Amino acid sequence: MPDSFSTTSTVSYGGRIINSIKGVVIGLLLFVVSFGVLYWNEGRVDLANIAKTAVEVNSAAVSSDATLTGKLVSTTGSVDSSQNIGDSLFLNPDKFIAAERKVEMYAWVEKTQTQSSSNTGGSKTTTTTYTYSQNWVESPKLTSDFKHPEGHENPVKSLNDSTTEVTTASIGAYSFDPQSVGLPGLSPLALNAHDVTVKNGATLASDNYLFIKNSATGTFEAPQLGDLRVSYLVLRPGFNGTIFGQLNGVKIDPYVDQAGNNLYRLFVGSRNQALATLQTEFLTMLWLLRAVGFLLMWFGLLAFFGPVSVVMDFLPVFGTISRSLIGTVTFLAALVLTVTTIVVSIIAHSLVALIVAALVMMVVMLVIARVIKQRKLNRA
């Protein structure tokens, strides 16, 4: 069977108008949701600010300061573990803090390309082309999900990904839980005969991959449908790292503040490098969600005014002009509304914080005044 299929459909003028009116509801929903996303985003907590309040302790010896128990601390030192781990399959046990097995299958991949054109009289013709090719993929698509499954049957992936961490590890004199802490990124493992045991039909195909032949004629250089390739990502001990968490004697545990913010992370490098990483993560997500909020608002406005362009499509040239004008106007409107919402949200969250702080202060003052009054009465 051919690996490319095209289908053409035409929607009548009346049908397009009805669909565009339905789209108005979706547009309104997206428009409203955008304000919620933007407001919530501006109120997110920057974990870097919490991390800055952590008391820095020396990892060379366990602190004897009992007042630090239960407090947020950070310490920097050599990360180590006495345990050896593998993946109970190919990866031999070795000095790893964590090891991840990544399995890809050579499988059918579906790509979709759509082209639409408006016709005189308001109808719209859409041509959709489905192209099928084989490539390495980590999560093969189910054959039943393909538009044209015939001749593009993907076998079931016979081996899954896995991640293993040691159960105990230390940073200097302090222990921590590697299975609960947020670990730094893992690095690709260069494979050799010392690192892996070749079995179950696998072969060491390169420095990066094991190859498992599930087809009749497949090779690593020319794989066939169903063949697998396996690679590994690991985190080795012995690096200089910084951890943030709650101090409990000789152990650093997860830290949760009164607002429910959790901080239990291990970083490569110094405390300052860790703080910089947290700051970068926060700013990246901040601007990403701002962009998401803007796009939700813009797409919502486009959908809301969609019926106007559809009506104008009775003569396609008028529809094209209206889409251009509506796209420009709604883009500018969404941009202005997004900036305004961000500014108002920042102010609103600041006011809420000030009000909460004032209420807490009032409660504290009332408690202190009551205690003082009670002491005076007791003395009298």
Q: Which key features would you list for this structure?
A:
five-stranded mixed β-barrel; 380 residues; 5 helices; 17 strands; 2 domains; alpha+beta
Strand content: 25-35%
Instruction: Tally the helices.
Output: 5
Q: Give the termini distance in whole angstroms.
A: 100 Å
Biggest pleated sheet:
8 strands, antiparallel
Output the radius of gyration.
30 Å
The rough form would be described as flat
Helix content: 25-40%
Order of helices and strands: EHHEEEEEEEEEEEEEEEEHHH
- Name the poorly predicted regions: none
Number of domains: 2
Query: How confident is the prediction overall: mean pLDDT?
Result: 92
Output the structural class.
alpha+beta
Description:
- It is a single chain.
- Helix 4 runs antiparallel to helix 5.
- Strand 15 and strand 16 form a beta hairpin.
- By secondary structure, the chain is of the alpha+beta class.
- It folds into 2 domains: 128 residues, no CATH class; 180 residues, no CATH class.
- The termini are far apart.
Compose a concise summary of this entry:
With 380 residues, the protein is α+β, with helices and mostly antiparallel strands.
